[in-house]
Amino acid sequence: SLGDGANDVSMIQVADVGVGISGQEGMQAVMASDFAIPRFRHLEKLLLVHGHWCYSRLANMVLYFFYKNAMFVALLFWYQFYCGFSGSSMVDQWYLIFFNLLFSSLPQLITGVLDKDVPAEVLIAVPQLYKSGQ
Question: Do 4 and 15 meet the contact criterion of CB atoms below 8 Å apart?
Answer without folding.
Answer: no
